[in-house]
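TICKET: design request
STATUS: open
ATTACHED STRUCTURE:
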């Protein structure tokens, strides 16, 4: 009797398993295209180089050189943090490097030409650009300011501001991660 019950249950279980395996094989055969249908694409973003405005008293060559190195690394730090958040498709600004170099020849502070930054973002095919400035108001206090601009509408989507209470590369790396978190939470992702 037990053997007959077990055979009946075993056959039903085998039928269910065959059906389940067939469905899994079918889903696997459809490939990533079938799975990607339901996944909305991430908005793309490009972090432009940050401009530096220094009103501090300490202008020693070693200090200025260290600030320049940290400033050059800042977009990469923000990019890494944005990629880690998985909400954006991050495009490196190296795609528009020739345009950035041309702007640097025409403008002491290229980010002041917001239209230029939007045009470069348009050339790169991104949805949003981050245009920022690092303002050193004293030997200790730095403000990291950034606008998230919609390339299509040419509108500022969000204005972000961080106060950094130290003048060193470690603090700027932390500020870059904080800025990326603010960008992740910005209105840019809330827009349709």
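STATUS: resolved
RESOLUTION: sequence designed for all positions
ATTACHED SEQUENCE:
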């Amino acid at each position: 009797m037990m053997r007959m019950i077990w055979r009946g249950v075993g056959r039903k279980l085998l039928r269910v398993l065959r059906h389940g395996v067939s469905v899994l094989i079918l889903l696997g055969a459809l490939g990533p295209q079938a799975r990607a249908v339901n996944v909305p694409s991430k908005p793309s973003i490009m972090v432009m180089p940050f401009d530096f405005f220094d009103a501090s008293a300490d202008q020693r060559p070693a200090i200025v050189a260290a600030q320049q190195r940290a400033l050059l690394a800042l977009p990469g730090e923000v990019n890494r943090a944005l990629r880690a958040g998985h909400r954006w498709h991050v495009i490196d600004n190296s795609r528009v490097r020739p345009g950035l170099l041309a702007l640097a020849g025409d403008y002491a502070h290229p980010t002041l030409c917001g239209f230029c930054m939007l045009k470069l973002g348009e050339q790169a095919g991104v949805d949003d650009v981050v245009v920022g400035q690092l303002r050193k108001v004293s030997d200790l206090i730095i403000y990291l300011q950034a606008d998230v601009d919609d390339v299509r509408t040419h509108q500022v989507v969000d204005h972000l501001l961080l106060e950094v209470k130290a003048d060193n590369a470690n603090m700027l790396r932390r500020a870059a991660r904080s800025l990326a978190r603010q960008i992740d939470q910005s209105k840019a992702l809330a827009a349709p």
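CLOSING REMARK: Residues 21-27 have pLDDT under 50 and may be disordered. Residues 101 and 128 are 20 Å apart (CA to CA).
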